[in-house]
Request: fold
Amino acid sequence: MMWNCATKYMMNAKVYVGKENNEIARGLASDVVCTLVQPISGQDRGGRNVTTDNFFTSVDLANQLKNKKLTFVETMKQNKREISQEFKPARQRDENSSIFGFTKDLTLMSYVPKKNKSVVLLSLLHNDSAICSDPGKLEIIELYNETKGAVDMLDRMCARYTVQRATRRWTMEMFYCMINISAVNALAIYAHNMRKDQPEKKIKRKDFFLRIAHDLVTPFVTQRYKLSTLHRNIETAIVMCGFVSHSEENTMQDPEDYKEISRK
Reply:
């Protein structure tokens, strides 16, 4: 998935369905990232920064993103061949110390958060060892910390209010996932538009999702209310939930109209 950290909007996704044509894929990690960033890459749409999981990180991917007019900041696994021994954990390295390596376009940094531990980051965005306004905090680490949890945040938002149900069919699993993500995206668009028109107004995510659910079921509930064979208890429940008023007539629904509503 590709998620916008600023707006909390999921911009692109790709479903992994296993091997294609029963062949072992080469360079799968780079291909996945390049496919996902397609909507934001290019001369006209470039200039954005990409943060990925360290499974995808490589120098080859960084070079590909550079050609797409994108920047790149991510941690690297310690077993990558591009990382020299000096950048790996060592007892003699001091806590909170850093080592930098530079090429024309790339910056490799090794940071020691605590003894015998090191974190290696690769960046296309930085070309020096600059620190932030807070003393001792490196810009590369600060940017990475701000953007690293995007997809995890999306997963938590979907899990908090979910339509997920137990199923053994992967197609239904995909359907539930699409609904959850669509609801989060709808909230992101609504909040963005509302901030322009009414900056002081705020809406809770729970209230927004309840409004979505209400609007989605209203056409079906109102059509069902017109059925002459509807049980009186269900009629009362529909009225109490505010879908129809007491004055609305209880008339038989035309079958063709009911089919039209179902197709919508």
